[in-house]
Amino acid sequence: MRATDAPAGLHRHDYATRDQLAEALAAGVSAKLAGGIATRGHASLAVSGGSTPKRFFEVLSKAGLDWSSVMVLLVDERLVPPDHERANAGLVRRHLMQNRAAEARFVPYVVDGHTPAECARLSQAAFEQDGHRLDACILGMGTDGHTASFFPGGDRLAEALDPEGDDKVLPIFAEGAGEPRLTLTLPPILDARFVALHIEGAEKRTTLETALGGTDVDAMPVRAVLHQTATPVHVFWAP
C-alpha cells in the first residue's frame, strides 16, 4: 500500500535500523513529555509490553528530562502476579525505569488480590489520580491485529473500543491473549497528545498493510486506531 493510500491523520516513519527507530521515537516522546512539564508542571506516558520496545525504553531512559515530574503507566497488563516473568510491569522496570528515568513515578496496574473487575476499577482510580490527558501513548501490535489488549474475540472488545465509553480501564479475556488482562480503553488512548504505533520486522509490516486494507475492526482491532480520523497516529517501523 502506498503512503498516499493511508487514512487521513496516519503518519508513517520508516527507519533503516531498529536502533535508528528507537532514537527517533525516544526523541519524539521526550519532546512531548518536556512540553507537558513546561506547560503544566507534569507529564504522563503510557507504554506497551512485549519484546519490541526494549531498545526504545533503554534510549528513552537516558533522556535529559525532569523525570521526577513524569508519571509512567502501562497501556495494558496481564492479570498475573507482579513478579511474574510475563508481567509488563517487570519489563518496564528493567528497561525503562533506570538511568535518569529511575526518578519517574511508575503506576502499575492492580493485578492481584481482587476480582478482574475490581482490579480494573482500582487501576482506573490510579490512572485518574492526576486528572489529565496522557502526553504520549505508545502502542504495539500483534500479528493477529491486536493492539493494547484489544484482541480479536475479546469478551469485552466492543466495550473497550466504544468511542463514547466512560470506562478508562477494563478487564478483557480472549483465547489469543493467553491470560486475562487489563487494558486502557480506546478513548484515553486516542485522547493522548501523541499516539505512536511501534512495530518492527517484515511480518508486522505485512500485518499493518492488511489492517490498512480493510475495515473489519472485530477481525483486526488495531483498525480502530488506524482508521479513525480524530487523532493523528504515528507509525514507527524498522526491518
From TrEMBL:
GO MF term list: 6-phosphogluconolactonase activity
Reactions catalysed according to its record: 6-phospho-D-glucono-1,5-lactone + H2O = 6-phospho-D-gluconate + H(+)
Pathway(s) per entry: Carbohydrate degradation; pentose phosphate pathway; D-ribulose 5-phosphate from D-glucose 6-phosphate (oxidative stage): step 2/3
UniProt EC number: 3.1.1.31
Gene Ontology terms describing biological process: carbohydrate metabolic process; pentose-phosphate shunt
Gene3D superfamilies in UniProt: 3.40.50.1360
Keyword Repressor: no
Residues covered by the Glucosamine/galactosamine-6-phosphate isomerase domain: 17-229
Family statement drawn from the similarity comment of this UniProt entry: Belongs to the glucosamine/galactosamine-6-phosphate isomerase family. 6-phosphogluconolactonase subfamily.
Family matches, as NCBIfam families: pgl (TIGR01198)
Protein name: 6-phosphogluconolactonase
Organism listed in the record: Oceaniradius stylonematis
